[in-house]
Amino acid sequence: MNRNQVIILSLLFSCFLFSQNSKQNNPGVFPKEACGVWCWYSWGGSPNVWNGKILPNETYSKMRGIPIVIGWNELEPKEGVYNWDLIDDIIKKAAANQKYVFTLLWLNPTEPDWLYENGVPKVEINTYKSDKNFSYNAYPLDPEYKFYSERIITKLANHLRSLPENLFQYILFHQVVEGSTGDGYCYKGDPVDPKYNVDKKVEWPAYQAYIRKFTIDAFTNKSNGLPEIPLLIHTEDMEWGAKEYSGFVNKKGVASHFYGSNDTKRKMEIYSPWDTDKNSLNRPVFSRGEGETMWLSKWFMKDPLQNLYWSALYALHSGLDIWNLPQKILEDPTYYQALDLFDKYAGYKYPERSPVAFCALRDQLNTDDKNRFPENIYGESNRKNTDRVQKICAAFASHGAIIQDLDKTLAGSLASRGRTGYNDVGWSCIDDDYSLYLYPIAKLETSVGWWHIGPKDQPYGLEGRGFEHASGKDAMYFKFHDDFFKTIPAQSLKFRIVWLDTNKGSWSFCYDAGGKDLITAKTFIGIGTNTWREDEITITDAVMQKNGPRGSDIALLNTGKKDYIFHLIEVERK
Length: 574
What we know:
Number of strands: 25
Strand content: 15-25%
CATH topology of the largest domain: TIM Barrel
Number of helices: 18
Protein name: Glycoside hydrolase family 42 N-terminal domain-containing protein
Distance between the termini: 15 Å
CATH class of the largest domain: Alpha Beta
Largest sheet: 8 strands, parallel
Shape: globular
Structural class: alpha/beta
Strand order of the largest sheet: 1-11-10-9-8-6-3-2
Domain Glycoside hydrolase family 42 N-terminal: 70-164
InterPro entries: GH, Glyco_hydro_42_N
Radius of gyration: 26 Å
Organism: Flavobacterium luteum
Number of domains: 2
CATH superfamily of the largest domain: Glycosidases
Signal peptide: 1-19
């Protein structure tokens, strides 16, 4: 066994130990085997019931876990009577199949009716929801409500923390629930009686802070000798979360609700520092998110597999670790290519420990980008100027860019999700290539974007970038994260490259082997099939110290006069 093999085995063993002990020694740090696709089954005004499908012949074989979402009225249907089997039976089945769980107790709108018999005010709501469960709620600021809600939270925490180790080890975290269905406010509408209004600027934030702190203490305090359960806190104030609880997990809906929404670039700037260990916690903050709302959207239905596949790339780029998807999707092999993609890369928060990296090439057209699209040419940049949107799209129409719902191109984040078709121009959308530890260098200077390309039976062609020989764009350069080879030397790497074979030209894959110039690993000859090709290359003498042009580690070089379009570069340590 050579020295490098010893180093690799030692690192893998260390990562195994790190994973095994992460909950005890590093609360909030997920083991890799917990990261990936989980099922989801709860929406509307009351939690639905998990269908129990867990075996490979029943559902997606790589499903990593099951959420346990339960209403207060189910857990405590009569005062002081607790249906623990509703939770325990799922944990037992999950543990028997080496799947993880997290727990989520809905206090609202599933309050048990006995609360009102005990004097808690029953608030009638003019709800905008069709579900009758939203038509009345308990008044959350009532002292009696506080007593009973604190009691059920404490009972649940103590029960879970007292489970035997063979079950407890599969509880990944508990999600703090604040508002209705776990959302950001107590009511889905306005109270009929205004005396039960809860002020959103003062009273509700105070309630949120109180219930968060109470739940954190219930699940983590050491005075009772019980083991800690990490907490998911749903907040965009990441610094607050880190200060309140060092083991906190986050909900990242902006990453889980599929690609293409406006304002995602701005929103992800909130989270990106917390996807690394370069923050006040000195560790990444792991996250989950639900992808349950897009399935019947008109834009998504145009090509469900392709859109889920690209949503997986977007979610990975955005640092999502657990993707909760509807049970029916996990039972449909049509989607498994997209699910496999997310499963492969999810959870690798530390570049030096990651065995993989990728870069999915793309070009986002943002109408708020005044540098790329000067106002003196395209018009004023604001959220009403659709003429500017159309001018930007027209400039790239020959490469496939389209707008199918003009009004949604400048809409807010939530409204833009409801677009009726593809919009390749947006507002403050993520404009990076979707990537994990492999990044393009000066991509707009070295390549051109393409949209809606290649055959429909392959999911790769939503976007891409390629050569443009006529303008001298014949080389695309890439570099690895500075820490990717910090622990394990580069040396042996396997690359998978997905490219569109449109003509009989040629291109080369080049890499840094330690010399003054990149060396050619292989030259590929096009046939002109107009299909996406997937080619693999294994190199054994890589150095990857950014010795190439523009500080690159690898490059795609055009060796002829024909142009090619690329979708993906994947890397795996060997």
